[in-house]
Amino acid sequence: MAVAALAPAQSGRYGFGGGRFGRPQSTRADYPTWEVKERFEQDVLTFVRIQYSSYTGGSGSRRGSGWRNDYPDSDINFSFRLQELTSMEVATDPIAMRLTDERLLDYPFLYLNAPGRLEFSDDEARALRRHLLNGGLLMMDDFWGREEMENVFHEMRKVFPEREPVELPLEHPIFQLIYPLERKPQVPSIQAWSQGYEIEPWHGDMSDPAPYFKAILNDQGQVMALMCHNNDLGDGWEREGESVEYFKRYAEKWSYPVGINIMVYMMTH
User: Fold this and answer.
1) Residues of the chain with pLDDT > 90: what percent?
2) What is the mean pLDDT of the chain?
3) Is the pLDDT score of 10 beyond 90?
4) pTM over 0.85
């Protein structure tokens, strides 16, 4: 697996995408595109974001955007960086789909953003279980605090009632495989960081602010579902075009390295 050094984009500005933080919403034309080798056109890795309708609300939460949070900026930026920095052939256009979509098994990687207040239907839980037992990997990102963690654990018990999440040690390949990390990453949203916070303070009980990487493992000990708690790794992907300092401090140092490690782990384990 060939991997290039992580470096800032050269596009006339730092990174890609306009986003929503003091700038107009970007369009697909704001992002780079790339050629997929003809022989791999039917065998590319596609970034798939999971759509969901459920949202339980709750005081102190800002989660009204639901599955659309950071979309599509983070997905496009990460797809570009994955194609740029590794030897993987990556689809130029990430997609969003529901767990009950009949095409789900065609895509090994699933990304679920802001799951702190979602609720799986029975059909969604069955579909996700089938996908993960067939070799897929789910990454859950951008949920914070005690209540949101408890909700994610509750919903994942619908998927795997017989399996308990375990905390991944720093020595796990997800933290060491391509980009060795000296500690488990923690990435605040750019909004929190711009207000001087290292964590997000808007999620109820934040008495334990440490980053956690809880995983549900298959019978061979391989990660099927990864729950990135007290983190907004997707904001590091989304916001790279908005702040040089935020890019260097969070996107370049944490969000892209751990994201690429996850994808290479999925493809090689």
Assistant:
1) 75
2) 87
3) no
4) yes
Q: What CATH architecture does domain 28-268 belong to? A: 3-Layer(aba) Sandwich (3.40)
Closest CA to 140 of 123, 163, 170, 118: 118
Long-range own/partner contacts, residues 97-105 (CB < 8 A, 24 or more apart): 97/48, 97/49, 97/50, 97/51, 98/50, 98/51, 98/52, 98/124, 99/50, 99/52, 99/123, 99/124, 99/127, 99/128, 99/131, 100/124, 100/127, 104/48, 104/131, 105/130, 105/131, 105/134, 105/136
pLDDT the model gives residue 81: 94
Strands 166-167 and 212-217: antiparallel
Element (H or E) spanning 111, and its range? strand 109-113
Instruction: Provide the residue ranges of all domains of the chain, joining segments of one domain with +.
Output: 28-268
- List helix spans (H) across 86-217: 122-133, 145-159, 173-176, 190-194
